Amino acid sequence: MSAKKSTTKKKTNVTRASVIEQYMNFVLEEERTPKSVYKFCKDQNITEAEFYTFFGSFDGLRKEIWNQFFDESMKLAHKNKEYDSFNNQEKMLTFFYTFFEMLTLNRSYVLFALQEEKDMMRNLSQLKGLRKRIKEFSATLIENRNEEKNFKLLKHPVSVFSEGAWLQTLFILKYWMEDSSPSFEKTDIVIEKSVRAIFDVFETTPLESVVDFGKFLWKDKMN
After folding, report:
1. Distance between CA atoms of 166 and 132, rounded to whole angstroms?
2. Inside any domain, residue 129
3. 67 and 25, same structural domain?
4. Are residue 115 and residue 43 in the same domain, yes or no?
5. pLDDT tens by residue, 73-108
6. pTM score over 0.90
């Protein structure tokens, strides 16, 4: 009896990161999402038990991918030795620049994930964890700013600012998805101007930044 050549994939150590990588690779190579956890695990040579150790469903996995984009961006931002000395606006700028660099590295997956369903709200449901993280991050920035103010009337509403930061994120994300400029340089301009605008809304001279931002968007639209 002759020995048959084994076609079984070599078993590797299963981690949260490895399952995410396998899922993203599957989506990009197959241009679709897996039909079932069972079939996905069989194709990837892992057990369902191993999958469910980290994720309760594909929905949970998709949300975790966006959470990881945020977490990794914050880690990279904090590696800048000057980060702690930055003012709040500079910290938010650093985060957004880093976050969108992270998305650019994974652009093919991000575009697929956000355009998979015709219903945009279904696509955005995977961003729930990201929304929570960005609101918490921006809330911390404005709370720190409020601590510097002695009078209650001069303090800024944290909930309004954090929700504004999230809406700003969605706006930049949509712009980035449609940006065809080299190295997405126009997205960098949008980040700089929109961050300056949202901070100035809570300071004394909001009109100049908002008008400046509006002019840029109008000029870009006309071109």
Report:
1. 9
2. yes
3. no
4. no
5. 999 999 999 999 999 999 999 999 999 999 999 999
6. no
